[in-house]
């Protein structure tokens, strides 16, 4: 794929994320997205043949984006407690700067499983992100910092804390800014997972 076509695909993804966040997934149509981008609907279909295909590409895009951020943290010479804080900080920073990304993950990917079939079942479409979380856990266990436990229970705890806080922020329930919770949430996650 040419660089120009790749850039256009990313513009479509970003615009779609914003519209889905504002109008909802089912209330946003391909013509809505094309109109927002000043493209013809026919041209939109040259990039994405259907809204379901677009939905899968968006979750892959988010997974790759978050996976790269996590990989950078995993590659740093930090102890597990410091990595935990960096991951929480990264996630909350993205939730503040790009709320549409986390909103899409929480509200569309997790709640509309019927869309994410045909090659996107389970964790297939989020494998870059999940792989880096696995590495974080494996290295933490190897260092003797984290309890050796079932990955999914540890993953659920970690993501439950992060997703819960971002959800509360999105609902305007938190009395403080999200970034003011980084230290407390990092401490809670690390203590819950540590030996």
Care to give the gist of this entry?
The chain is mainly α and 195 residues long. The chain is built from 9 helices and no strands.
**Sheet with the most strands, sense and barrel status:** none
The strand count comes to: 0
According to CATH, what is the topology of the largest domain?
Tetracycline Repressor, domain 2
CATH class of the largest domain: Mainly Alpha
Mean pLDDT: 93
Name the CATH architecture of the largest domain. Orthogonal Bundle
Helix content: 55-70%
Residue stretches low in confidence (pLDDT < 50, at least 5 long) are none
CATH homologous superfamily label of the largest domain: Tetracycline Repressor, domain 2
Q: Tell me the count of domains.
A: 2
Shape: elongated
What does this structure look like?
- This protein has nine helices and no strands.
- It folds into two domains: 1-49, Orthogonal Bundle (Arc Repressor Mutant, subunit A); 55-193, Tetracycline Repressor, domain 2 (Orthogonal Bundle).
- It has 195 residues and is mostly helical.
- The model has no long low-confidence stretch (mean pLDDT 93).
- Helix 1 (3-23) packs across helix 2, helix 1 (3-23) crosses helix 6 (99-109) and helix 5 (80-97) packs across helix 9 (182-193).
Q: Could you give the topology of this structure?
A:
Layout: H1 3-23, H2 30-36, H3 41-47, H4 51-74, H5 80-97, H6 99-109, H7 127-142, H8 151-170, H9 182-193
Helix pairs in contact: 1-2, 1-4, 1-6, 2-3, 4-5, 4-7, 5-6, 5-9, 6-8, 8-9
Features of the shown structure:
mainly alpha, Arc Repressor Mutant, subunit A, Tetracycline Repressor, domain 2, 2 domains, 70% helix
